[in-house]
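Homework help board

Subject: predicted structure for assignment chain

Our instructor gave us this sequence and asked us to write out the predicted structure in token form, then describe one feature. I got the tokens but I'm not sure how to describe them. Can anyone check?
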Amino acid sequence: MESLRDSGKIVGSPASLRDIAEGCGLTSPLSLQSFLKKRGCPYSRCIQLHIKILHSPTNFTVDEMIEAMRRVYATADIRVVAASGQNLSSSVSSLLLDVDVGSCSGTTTSEQEDLFDLDDFVGNDDNEIVIYFVRSTVPGSNGCATHPSGHPGAVIAESASLWTLAHEVGHVLDLNHISGEDDASGSCVTPDYTRLMTGCSTDNITGTPMLDDNEVETMRSNSFTLSC
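My token output:
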């Protein structure tokens, strides 16, 4: 199969067929589903997500975030598989609804450790990514991808944008915020809201955000990205 990426430095929309049936989630119209069932999902690389809902997001549904993620990950020839889903809203401590994420820079807090212990139905912690939907993070943000060693995943707050999930999993796959946006004080000076890994809030992204070739290579070579 020809690569869905173009020849430029920034990659954008993949080849038609409704972004190859929403990243092979097969949620598009029946004609597209029939095509893909005959041809098979074309992607050679996959990531597996396990969804744990402690508190539902308010701006977009979990399904909407997954489908948005599939659209942008399709530009890297990566299929996003929702391997399991679990609603924990009535069965976990309310103390985990507002999760202390510290500085969200590599060191986990005790609350993050407790949260990531909720890993029922996860087959292999080493390469299956667990997403925890909570009410908020402390300090407040849309999400945080800092996770315990051997438990890849991210925390997503109820305030999340449509692209927060894709962005935070990008961090799990070793992507950094794009350079050139922050000055010494940490202020956004030249934001690029066409890019998934903008460091100036995914709330401002319009349209399907893009990845560059280096980001695509990093994602595809990450150990959490599996052969389909």
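Reply (TA_rk): Your tokens look well-formed. For the description, you could write something like this. Residues 62-74 form the longest helix (13 residues). That's the kind of observation they're looking for.
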